Amino acid sequence: MDTYFVLGNPIEQSRSPFIHQQFALQTKQSMQYEKQLVALADFQTVINDLIKNSVKGANVTAPFKEQALALCTQLSARAKMAGAVNTLSFNNGEIIGDNTDGIGLVNDLKSQQITLKGKRILLLGAGGAARGVILPLLDEEPEQLFIANRTLAKAELLSEQFINDRISVISFEQTQDYQFDLIINATSASLTANVPNISADCITNKTVCYDMVYAKQATNFLLWAQSNDAAKVIDGLGMLVGQAAESFYQWRNVQPDISPVLVKVRKQINAS
Prior knowledge:
- By secondary structure, this protein is α/β, with parallel strands linked by helices.
- Helix content is 38%, strand content 21%.
- It contains 10 helices and 12 strands.
- α8 links the parallel β11 and β12.
- α1 crosses α9 and α5 crosses α6.
- It starts with a strand and ends with a helix.
- The relative contact order is 0.14.
């Protein structure tokens, strides 16, 4: 039986084992998927041990995504642009790295009938979460992708890594001068129950607001968006399940159906 892991620190909260177990049952794959807490100094040792034990692949979560990138012998284009790896495949001595976060986001939006082509998108944040989704969003051919960050210089630095006329950089304050079809919160603000300091003027009654964070209750960012008449608000649970589905597909060459698994994970969260 093929074995896979999710590696992180902390890792106890990870829902990946449940998600991949559901995918395996659904697609009749003979595999097991476990989580492993990795000491901060032991990531490379753990990867070497997994390979020695014929483990087929691993998902990587914080804080090891950059270390995973450095260990890879092959990288996908989106992993290179993201500067981080969340999916490892071990194959004949090769360590193959990919980043499935962005495609997980895009597929979640599409599943909810959100059109990206020709739209004006605002991406909040300039850290790793934002960087990981830029290339997949650009692949959908939006009219313009605006990157806004509390520190403008950091957003400018990020944009310079993507040579694309569709990217614009603005400060949080400048959001008052624009209106958007889609606003994606890739900041860590929701983890501390805060809201990015952007202008409510950038939201119309046709704007969709998406938070990469998910929780039992709506995040403060989504509540703020609702209070300012956003057309629709969406949390990041579908992105989580979607990125897992892309990893699963790479490993097993079978595309799972995300929808029933998403329903089960949501029930699990609501019951906790």
